[in-house]
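User: I'm new to structure prediction. If I give you an amino acid sequence, what do you actually give back? Let's try with this one:
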Amino acid sequence: MKKFMSEFKEFIARGNVMDMAVGIIIGGAFTAIVTSLVTNIINPLITLITGGASGVSGLQIPVNADTVIDFGAFISAIINFLIIALVVFSMVKALNKLQEQASRFGRGKQEKAAPAVPVCPHCLEEVKEGATRCPHCAGEIPGGAKA
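Assistant: Good question. You get back a string of structure tokens that encode the predicted 3D arrangement of the chain. For your 147 residues, that looks like this:
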């Protein structure tokens, strides 16, 4: 159980999970905006064009006194989805382009690797090249420290 909890803590501590949580919250808020756009602007325009009084004319089928099959609501949900999908697609495409440009920039500017630093074989601390004793543990380094 302890191993499971430690793995869970490691999973939660990753940056990806926090990014995903922020994305879900922003997505929920954005969905409310798109729903309002469709409900308050696009649906009334469709009603105006089709001449319906309320809702999209001819897209409601009464089943009984209390129930109606509302194709207008279904069409609204499809419009919501398409708008959200278009915005998400645009954002992903823009992010991919930025990442591509950043990687191209990084490839153009090659940095030289730092020279290897010799370490003590006893305590694994860094020592100066050529040292015969470690300044940290005083262990003898046979043949002098080499990178």
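You can read the tokens as a compact description of the fold. Here is one thing that stands out. The helical segments are 2-13, 15-50, 71-108.
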